[in-house]
Design a protein that fits this description.
Elements (H helix, E strand, L loop, with lengths): L1 E5 L3 H13 L3 E5 L2 H10 L4 E4 L8 H9 L7 E5 L4 H9 L4 E4 L4 H15 L5 E4 L2 E4 L4 E4 L2 E3 L3 H12 L5 E2 H8 L10 H13 L8 E4 L3 E4 L13
Helix pairs in contact: 6-8
Length: about 230
């Protein structure tokens, strides 16, 4: 899941970025409206966290531009403007939620997850054979055994399971899970796939994470034939 944080106060932006990344999300930061719109046009986001008081534009104006796009993600307004009129105006302008500063990060995270569930038609519980993933509780089991995963491991596994039977390139995995572009040199995906295999495959007779030569990886039961997919 990829989140855009539009916040001009660097201290708050860095705090949100670190917190959301530790929760397993890829995060981009924008300090003004122009940078935010460049990112919105360049990438697909699952949620946008939007401050209203930006140095080059009003947040509601930016919200209108985001909503003018054919496909726009859920938007959570994060603002020091806490009056009833401000909150009503923000929601009526197209925001999906409104959180007033100062805020508790645990509440912001809960609201982000609620927006992700609302905007995500895919099921919250995924299964492939005896492997089960509960995206709401962030819980993974195989053959009834609980498996502890680090946040990035969980995000990769969820991405693979939501695309079951579809080969995913390293580029696609990096762009979805990390806040960075794939440069063709890093082996970060291969390292994390090895970690995942050691936890969900090595001790079980049926291996679910498969290497697709020349492309990357996919997750599926071995008897299924992979569907071709072009790299983004």
């Amino acid at each position: 899941m990829r989140i855009l944080v539009v916040e001009d106060e660097k201290r708050i932006a860095d705090f949100l970025g670190r917190g959301l990344e530790s929760a397993g999300y890829a995060v981009d930061l924008a300090g003004d409206g122009a940078s935010a719109m460049n990112l919105v046009y360049a990438a697909d986001y699952d949620v946008i966290v939007l401050d209203l008081m930006l140095p080059d534009t009003d947040g509601l104006t930016l919200l209108g531009k985001i909503r003018d796009r054919k496909s726009s993600p859920p938007v959570l307004i994060l603002s020091a403007r806490g009056g009833l009129d401000d909150r009503v105006k923000g929601l009526e302008s197209g925001a999906d939620d409104y959180l007033v500063k100062p805020f508790a990060f645990v509440e912001l995270l809960a609201r982000v997850r609620a927006l992700l569930r609302r905007g995500q038609p895919a099921p919250e519980k995924l299964q492939a054979g005896d492997l089960c993933l509960d995206s709401t509780r962030r819980r993974v089991t195989r053959a009834g055994e609980n498996i502890e995963l680090a946040p990035k491991e969980f995000s990769i596994l969820e991405y693979l399971m939501r695309n079951r039977g579809r080969p995913l390139s390293r580029t696609m995995i990096v762009e979805h899970v990390w806040d960075m572009d794939y440069d063709g040199l890093t082996n970060i995906v291969d390292v994390y796939i090895r970690h995942l295999r050691s936890k969900i495959d090595d001790r079980f007779p049926v291996k679910l994470i498969q290497t697709v030569r020349g492309i990357g990886y996919m997750l599926d039961l071995p008897e299924r034939t992979p569907e071709p997919a072009s790299e983004r």
